């Protein structure tokens, strides 16, 4: 994915029977004196053992721009080296992708949008039993559709509001953060979100929520309550 080859050794092997570790070239040089015999040696990380499988190439610091990594460990070691109670609930995964040859960013974005829309569509049938009961009790299809649309809007606006709060907060956190970064990682980006940014984010959230909520709402409103209850009963 990153098209990076190890300087020596190999990167993490998912099929390894023992936890592995990959060291950065800088750590390998400063801590181990570029000793090639470090490969296969066991080291301890926060009390946990791992076998050094390889050394990353010089200059490679990971996929995160503002955080320089000196070591890479498998996910299986995460909760053991980080025993915090929040370790199992804290979001820690990022998704990276490489565009296929001939695919533009706009085309990839449209494909991702269709996947999100598909997830929203799958959410509607998953609630067919609830919708079937409400329709059987006399709820109007339009009311069901409005409920689905309202849920979509609430989710979209909640995400937009959270993003706005984070943007406003990071405006004050970024200057001291940038001042403490090493010189080769320092940045000079002046970011000051104002009412235009928040207005644009809010409008975008409403438009996207409506667009992605229309199809599930329409499908839910057309639900045959007899068929929905029959399928729900057969699956239990």
Entry summary:
The chain contains 7 helices and 5 strands. It is an alpha+beta fold and 236 residues long.
Describe the structure.
- The two termini are 42 Å apart.
- The longest helix has 40 residues, at 141-180.
- Strands 1, 2, 3, 4 and 5 form a 5-stranded mixed beta sheet that branches.
- The chain folds into 2 domains: 8-88, no CATH class; 105-235, no CATH class.
- It contains 7 helices and 5 strands.
- It is of the alpha+beta class and 236 residues long.
- Helix 4 (128-136) packs across helix 7 (225-235) and helix 5 packs antiparallel against helix 6 (195-221).
- It is 50% helix and 8% strand.
User: Residue-averaged pLDDT, rounded?
Assistant: 77
Rg calc: 25 Å
Low-confidence stretches: 177-181, 183-188
The biggest sheet amounts to: 5 strands, mixed
The best one-word shape is elongated
How much strand content do the residues show? 5-15%
Count of separate structural domains: 2
Treating each run of at least 4 consecutive H or I residues as one helix, how many helices? 7
Strand-pairing-aware structural class: alpha+beta
Topology as a string of helices (H) and strands (E): EEHEEEHHHHHH
Instruction: Please estimate the helix content.
Output: 40-55%
The separation of the N and C termini measures: 42 Å
What's the total count of β strands? 5
Summary tags:
236 residues, 2 domains, 5-stranded mixed β-sheet, 7 helices
Secondary structure layout:
Blueprint: E1 8-9, E2 20-23, H1 25-32, E3 42-45, E4 48-55, E5 71-72, H2 78-81, H3 105-123, H4 128-136, H5 141-180, H6 195-221, H7 225-235
Parallel strand pairs: 2-4
Antiparallel strand pairs: 1-4, 2-5, 3-4
């Amino acid at each position: 994915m990153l098209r990076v080859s190890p300087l020596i050794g190999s990167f993490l092997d998912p099929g390894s029977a023992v936890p592995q570790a990959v060291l950065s070239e800088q750590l390998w040089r400063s801590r181990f004196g570029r000793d090639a015999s470090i490969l296969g040696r066991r080291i301890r990380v926060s009390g946990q053992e791992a076998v050094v499988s390889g050394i990353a190439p010089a200059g490679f610091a990971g996929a995160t721009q503002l955080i320089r990594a000196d070591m890479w460990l498998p996910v299986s070691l995460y909760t053991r080296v980080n025993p915090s109670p929040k370790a199992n609930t804290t979001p820690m995964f990022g998704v990276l992708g490489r565009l296929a040859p001939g695919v533009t960013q706009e085309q990839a974005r449209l494909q991702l949008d269709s996947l999100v829309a598909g997830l929203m569509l799958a959410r509607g049938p998953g609630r067919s039993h609830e919708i079937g009961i409400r329709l059987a009790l006399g709820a109007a299809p339009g009311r069901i559709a409005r409920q689905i649309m309202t849920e979509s809007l609430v989710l979209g606006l909640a995400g937009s509001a959270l993003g706005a709060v984070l943007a406003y907060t990071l405006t004050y956190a970024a200057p001291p953060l940038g001042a403490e970064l090493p010189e080769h990682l320092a940045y000079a980006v002046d970011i000051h979100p104002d009412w235009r940014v928040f207005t644009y984010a809010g409008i975008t959230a409403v438009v996207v929520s409506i667009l992605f909520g229309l199809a599930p709402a329409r499908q839910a409103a057309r639900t045959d309550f007899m068929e929905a209850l029959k399928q729900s009963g057969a699956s239990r």
